[in-house]
Amino acid sequence: xNEFVLPIRVYYEDTDSSGIIYHANYFKFMERxxxxxxxxxxxxxxxxxxxxxxxxxxxxxxxxxxxxxxxxDWLKVHTRILRYGGASLNFTQIVQREAGDDLCRAEVKVxxxxxxxxxxxxxxKLIVTxxxxxx
Length: 135
Hints:
By secondary structure, the chain is an alpha+beta fold. It has one domain (about 5-135): Thiol Ester Dehydrase, Chain A (Roll), CATH 3.10.129. It is built from 3 helices and 5 strands, in the order E-H-H-E-E-E-E-H. The model has no long low-confidence stretch (mean pLDDT about 95).
């Protein structure tokens, strides 16, 4: 898959009292990037629930903080699929300052689940086709 990049401005609400990005907000930035990536290939999460009865949820996440980001920084969240299986997607995500400094790196495993039972479900073929078409 090609890399998807989402630009994000750091607002005051994203920082702690010293003007440094609060650590938990990196998770939010990455979630937004995965949502926008999905939207960019033609899928809205609420439509996936209505039409296919599925939801995507984070199953595991490993994150390394490398250096701080600050209020008013422009960031780029780089998102790339490492691999996909029947009911999961593995992403690598890097949050980078616009100048190119890596602030944090993560590997994220996302599971495809039935929207009612929350049991694993195969990723719909239409999504797999879009993902594999970009490889």
